[in-house]
Design brief:
CATH superfamily: HUPs
Keywords: Electron transport, Transport
Structural class: alpha/beta
Low-confidence stretches: none
Cofactor: AMP
Radius of gyration: 21 Å
Strand order of the largest sheet: 11-10-9-12-8-1-6-7-13
CATH architecture: 3-Layer(aba) Sandwich
Number of strands: 13
InterPro entries: ET-Flavoprotein_bsu_CS, ETF_a/b_N, ETF_b, ETF_beta_N, Rossmann-like_a/b/a_fold
Subunit structure: Heterodimer of an alpha and a beta subunit.
Pfam families: ETF (PF01012)
Helix content: 25-40%
């Protein structure tokens, strides 16, 4: 079984994003970047499936500028076998990324595609679902646990009411949730080995995919400052404020 994993380069989750002064977007100048945490979980799960003998090859894919090579090298250091970069300076939106991934799927013919459930930069959470729709494949989102046996992938999903188990015939698309696993620490030795692993570069034109943005960002602003709380003398005063001021009871 070949597994294809999508990874995205985003602002490191420890860094507080800054909005550009003109409100046109988020300022990325001199900001530490890293692999999207949910995608890192997807890479870890793919490598674990390979280590368990369920997969024979793990291929990681990213779309963006040439700087996205660093997250691909990180994925290779985690245990992926090879990488593909779709190099473009375009502002990629979920449908465009899904289209690029669908084209890569046609070239690579994987049996399983893993993606993070969302990227922490825009929190859209749409790419995996759109990819499954374009491919006409079954999908399981918000994966909490995966089990592979007899050609069937069983996925335990996190849902509002608790957990749900679904069985998927391959090929399929799965998006990973936060509690699926804990990604491994990347050692210096594996980082050095990753430099020798193959990394191919393609373009959207070579894949025949139009990545022109279909949505226009009108303005990006900082969230309003949170109002400070107030102290009440007793429970009766709290109930009164909830009833008369907040109007929640």
């Amino acid at each position: 079984m070949k597994i294809l994993v999508a990874v995205k380069r985003v602002i490191d989750y420890n860094v507080k994003p800054r909005v550009k002064t003109d409100g046109s977007g988020v300022d990325l100048a001199n900001v530490k970047m890293a692999m999207n945490p949910f995608d890192e979980i997807a890479v870890e799960e793919a490598v674990r499936l390979k280590e368990a003998g369920a997969a024979t090859e793990v291929v990681v894919v990213s779309a963006g500028t040439s700087q996205s090579q660093d997250v691909l090298r990180t994925a290779l250091a985690m245990g992926a076998d090879r990488a593909i970069l779709v190099e473009t300076a375009a502002d990629l939106q979920p449908l465009a990324v899904a289209g690029l991934m669908a084209a890569i799927v046609e070239r690579e013919a994987p049996q399983l595609v893993l993606l993070g459930k969302q990227a922490i930069d825009n929190d859209a959470g749409q790419t995996g679902q759109k990819l499954a729709g374009l491919l006409g494949w079954p999908q399981a989102t918000f994966a909490f646990k995966t089990e592979f046996a007899d050609g069937v992938l069983t996925v335990t999903r996190e849902i509002d009411g608790g957990l749900e188990r679904v069985a998927l015939d391959l090929p399929a698309v799965v998006t990973t949730d936060l509690r699926l696993n804990s990604p491994r620490y990347v050692t210096l030795l594996n980082i050095m080995k990753a430099k020798k692993k193959p990394l191919d570069t393609l373009t959207p034109d070579a894949l025949g995919v139009d990545v022109t943005p279909r949505l226009t960002v009108l303005e990006v602003t900082e969230p309003p400052p949170r109002k400070s709380g107030i102290m009440v003398s007793d429970v009766e005063a709290l109930i009164e404020k909830l009833r008369n001021e907040a109007k929640v009871i």
